[in-house]
Predict the structure.
Amino acid sequence: MPGRGRPRRFDRDAALRTAMRLFWERGYEGTSMTDLTTAMGIGSPSLYAAFSCKEALFREAVALYNETEGAVPRRMLHEEPTARRAVEALLRISADAYTDPATPPGCLVVLGAANCTEENQGVREFLAGLRREDLAMLRARLDRGVSEGDLPAGTDTTALAAFYNTVLYGLSIQSRDGATRTELHDIVDTALAAWPGQRS
Amino acid sequence: MPGRGRPRRFDRDAALRTAMRLFWERGYEGTSMTDLTTAMGIGSPSLYAAFSCKEALFREAVALYNETEGAVPRRMLHEEPTARRAVEALLRISADAYTDPATPPGCLVVLGAANCTEENQGVREFLAGLRREDLAMLRARLDRGVSEGDLPAGTDTTALAAFYNTVLYGLSIQSRDGATRTELHDIVDTALAAWPGQRS
DNA sequence: CCATTTATATATCAACCGATACATAAATGA
DNA sequence: TCATTTATGTATCGGTTGATATATAAATGG
């Protein structure tokens, strides 16, 4: 039921996608409400009525990002048969996504609130929490590799997960600096040489 | 010769160090002129008279950062006898510096203008240029390792340098997220396992 | 038809941004 | 002494920030 009052003139989902795109491209503080309302083609009271405030809009946009952009890497992480292949798929898919010319370079969760003001520490902590979740998923996949026997028992999965997570962070910055897809995959090649038991 | 007019009431070098510290902590756009003048204890016309404008002050502060904080890693990179030991020293010293409680976490050159506004693209490009210089120095050190025989002939030094550079970028973000010194060194351990010929 | 509800458009709000105008203070050179 | 030069303190500039007050438009329920 669409309710009683005057119907909304714009598509809320489309507006949210627009916000995701802008925040992805320019970060939280780098995107102004005027940028958003202009890109959405609506007035600022309409935006506030639909999304409460800038921070709420950002959180909703990031949630959308996490559901859409994060779906493929998450699925790969689970479906690939070994930990090694899962991590390689994660890195390769991320490298491809970060250099997709149809979307802004790098990861919104990593870059969206890099050095933001103290007054927006809540936004920063929100993204940091998502990063911790991603790290935990990666570590869990490595632990699964140990329990399934494709990773040596006694592997320091915490350190290994932290390492590949760090590489992913670095890839985001590299893509922002204009690194090509090939360059990122070359970096991934080297990173995979650090895999336990690997000969480089 | 201190010149003719009324002498400056404040220490320009100390003010520059204050600016470096603030920019390091909060980034270019995250630091306001009011933040700067307050921390320096001077009025805004004095700041403008001494440093022209915000961007010029930032560039000078970053130059100071590069000279001071960058000195030790640069020296290690040159003085360590092998490429492998040089890279390890670079990573370890950076990990220590990024987690030094006396200074802000992470690297100013990496984090100082992460997703800044389009109108400040000049600042972003300035830092990107410094990062390219650092990358070139790292690659040159690896090339030296090849010519001196401690790295196998045919080693892809470009890819290897890009990889360790990427790890350094990632370490900056990790330290911003509150990673401890031990955690960073564990990541460095894993990164070094990717070294050519290494058994991990 | 009309009360109610919701969304819109216009016009702003106070706070902060980077940057200056202006008058005054404090030094030097002649 | 006094013109010149430079720096300082105060007050403020126009512009932008995130967020609203207000009045009107457009739907539903009775």
